[in-house]
């Protein structure tokens, strides 16, 4: 842009921007002054300044700005990405607000994190007034054209939003691509899956587009078609490997399909591209722990806690998850110095929970429960019992009794402290309670099946896989030994026990009745007394038990 043209545009825009308000946030005063002068030179006369993330939040509570230029680096702990996420969560931005993150950062991790937070613009320092003018003009024109749509979008008025987008597309408006992408999300929000299919397929019939493929995958996932979603996502990531949110969706679909090791691998790929996302690291910690990979879980949990500090995402669950993961992983640390450091980290996490969430009774209870589990894992029985006693007292004093969402955590803690009978009774009651949520029932049932460490679960899972491979080859004796070894790690697991029973029965079909094999079957069923009629393995259990009774004269 030559100087003459720039000054003409600036003169035209001065009257447009004159009534707008702007906020400039930067830790350095000279940068704030420089950007303020640029804005005033473009006609924006009402420009406020602040150096901190807290200052941005306070300013936005006091007035609604039209333009915010926020540096990534701010004083006071919060960075620009965290500020933007918190402003959105607290609904302190106007739908038509133009939020620009400014940064001199060149780190891929930081840049990817900023882009994932989806500011309206991203400006690399240093930049000129001409560059700022072009970016503002582009955003201002779009904001003017889409103002009503963005307002409907912000307020969840999907029918009006859909109608306005369709009209803009039919008129072949300048912002048709934006409208099409917005339509996908609006259709998904209103479960209009046929419309998502039609829109995305129409675009894909012309050329491959990342948002259209992602829209189809989201539709399939929303309908519970995880396998179909995974196929689409695999194609999407082959064509557009930087589509970062596709990795997150694929990991979720794989997890829901029980393919946890693949889910962890996909999350690992996503984290290599963009590690500074709280939700992604937390998902990685959860999936890694389910796979028995305590070291990956620990690393992801530590990152989750770090990313939560000073952000809207900080919550007690992150700290408690870290404590539980440290409890399971500390024994595998060879260096005594590193182990001590790790245990201190868990103690500090508990202290932070007690300090920052001191007014929440449910958090106080969770903290005491986590302390009990932590001490139990270290073999500190007295300390574990003291923490559990404190938790029981807090629970007894809570209005309305123990919250339903803490029953599983309470039951796990009782079990870890050696109170097995009471723990099983509480968790079994939850499983059989018709008023309990399906999610809580599943969590309780899963723990009753495998009240063992993640490492033990991983060992049992690997041996079970070996046993199934031997069974497929009709190598029944070898399969039986593999299943029995697996049960040493996870003795109550229904699938493992029933695999052992089924293999014993297969061997006896081929070789004839053997007393020791019948005894193995009986012992397996005795280990499964906790399996209720609501359990997903109950039908199989009954079928195998009836077969044993009928053919081998066994009584229970």
TrEMBL record:
Gene3D superfamilies: 3.40.50.2300, Tetratricopeptide repeat domain. Pfam families: Response_reg, TPR_19. Residues 21-140 form the Response regulatory domain. Keywords: Phosphoprotein, TPR repeat. The keyword Lyase does not apply. SUPFAM superfamilies: CheY-like, TPR-like. The keyword Magnesium does not apply. The modification 4-aspartylphosphate is found at residue 71. GO terms for biological process: phosphorelay signal transduction system. SMART domains: REC, TPR. InterPro entries: CheY-like_superfamily, Sig_transdc_resp-reg_receiver, ST_Response_Regulator, TPR-like_helical_dom_sf, TPR_rpt. TPR repeats lie at residues 460-493. PANTHER family: TWO-COMPONENT RESPONSE REGULATOR, TWO-COMPONENT RESPONSE REGULATOR ARR22. This is CheY chemotaxis protein or a CheY-like REC (Receiver) domain. It comes from Marinomonas fungiae.
């Amino acid at each position: 842009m030559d100087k003459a043209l720039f000054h003409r545009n600036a003169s035209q825009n001065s009257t447009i921007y004159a009534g707008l308000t702007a906020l400039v946030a930067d830790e350095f005063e000279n940068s704030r002054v420089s950007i303020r002068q640029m804005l005033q030179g473009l006609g924006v006369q009402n420009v406020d300044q602040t150096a901190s993330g807290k200052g941005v939040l306070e300013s936005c509570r006091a007035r609604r700005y039209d333009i915010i230029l926020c540096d990534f680096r701010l004083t006071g702990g919060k960075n620009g990405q965290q500020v933007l996420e918190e402003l959105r969560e607290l609904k302190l931005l106007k739908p038509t607000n133009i939020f620009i993150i400014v940064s001199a950062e060149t780190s891929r991790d930081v840049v990817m994190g900023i882009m994932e937070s989806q500011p309206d613009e991203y400006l690399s320092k240093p930049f000129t007034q001409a560059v700022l003018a072009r970016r503002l003009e582009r955003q201002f024109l779009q904001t003017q054209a889409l103002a009503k749509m963005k307002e409907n979008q912000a307020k969840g008025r999907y029918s009006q939003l859909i109608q306005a987008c369709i009209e803009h597309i039919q008129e072949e408006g300048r912002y048709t691509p934006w409208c099409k992408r917005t339509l996908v999300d609006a259709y998904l929000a209103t479960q209009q899956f046929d419309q998502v299919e039609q829109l995305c397929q129409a675009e894909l019939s012309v050329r491959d587009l990342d948002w259209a493929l992602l829209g189809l995958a989201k539709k399939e996932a929303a309908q519970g078609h995880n396998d179909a979603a995974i196929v689409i996502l695999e194609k999407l990531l082959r064509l557009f490997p930087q589509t970062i949110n596709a990795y997150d969706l694929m990991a979720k679909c794989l997890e829901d399909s029980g393919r946890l090791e693949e889910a962890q691998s996909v999350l690992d790929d996503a984290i290599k591209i963009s590690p500074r996302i709280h939700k992604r690291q937390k998902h990685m910690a959860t999936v890694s722990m389910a796979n028995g990979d305590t070291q990956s879980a620990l690393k992801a949990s530590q990152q989750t806690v770090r990313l939560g500090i000073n952000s809207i995402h900080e919550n007690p669950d992150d700290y408690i998850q870290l404590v539980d993961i440290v409890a399971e992983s500390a024994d595998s640390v060879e260096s005594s110095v590193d182990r001590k450091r790790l245990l201190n980290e868990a103690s500090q996490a508990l202290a932070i929970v007690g300090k920052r969430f001191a007014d929440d009774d449910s958090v106080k209870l969770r903290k005491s429960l986590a302390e009990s589990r932590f001490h139990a894992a270290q073999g500190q029985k007295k300390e574990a019992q003291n923490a559990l006693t404190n938790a029981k007292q807090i629970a007894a004093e809570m209005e309305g009794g123990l919250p339903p969402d803490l029953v599983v955590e309470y039951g796990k803690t009782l079990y870890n402290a050696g109170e097995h009978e009471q723990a099983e009774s509480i968790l079994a009651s939850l499983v059989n309670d018709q008023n309990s949520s399906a999610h809580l029932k599943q969590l309780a049932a899963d723990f009753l099946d495998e009240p063992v460490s993640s490492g033990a679960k991983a060992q049992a899972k690997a041996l079970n896989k070996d046993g199934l491979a031997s069974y497929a080859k009709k190598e029944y004796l070898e399969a039986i030994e593999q299943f029995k070894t697996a049960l040493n790690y996870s003795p109550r697991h229904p699938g493992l026990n029933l695999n052992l029973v089924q293999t014993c029965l297969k061997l006896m079909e081929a070789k004839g009745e053997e007393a020791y094999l019948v005894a193995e079957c009986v012992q397996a069923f005795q280990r499964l007394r906790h399996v209720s009629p609501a359990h997903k393995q109950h039908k199989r259990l009954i079928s195998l038990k009836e077969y044993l009774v009928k053919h081998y004269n066994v009584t229970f």
